[in-house]
Design a protein that fits this description.
The chain is α+β, with helices and mostly antiparallel strands. It has a single domain, classed as Ribosomal protein S6/Translation elongation factor EF1B (Alpha-Beta Plaits, 2-Layer Sandwich), CATH 3.30.70.60. It is about 30% helix and about 50% strand. It contains two helices and four strands. It has a four-stranded antiparallel β-sheet, with helices on one face. Strand 2 and strand 3 form a beta hairpin. The longest helix has 17 residues. The model has no long low-confidence stretch (mean pLDDT about 95).
Length: about 90
Amino acid sequence: MNRYEVLYILNTKSEEAVREAQIEKYKALVTSSGGTVEAVDKWGAKKLAYPIGFKSEGFYVLMNFTAAPDFPEELERQMRISDEVMRFIVVKK
């Protein structure tokens, strides 16, 4: 098991319940693959450095977790197909 962190930006135009559902979805994805979620820090809405899809704000979330070496690829795939996730980056610690 390796330690990772993922920082992702959610659309601020979506409702609070939708954002919470996305956060829970990614936490459940980690735990269902046999990993553990260590911490989820919600940084909140912040101004973006440059517009992404004509949006100037995003809701930042940082999640630290442990998982198998092949899991980040699946997490990235799930985030790529989501309309709510504007940007993401997964880093091995």
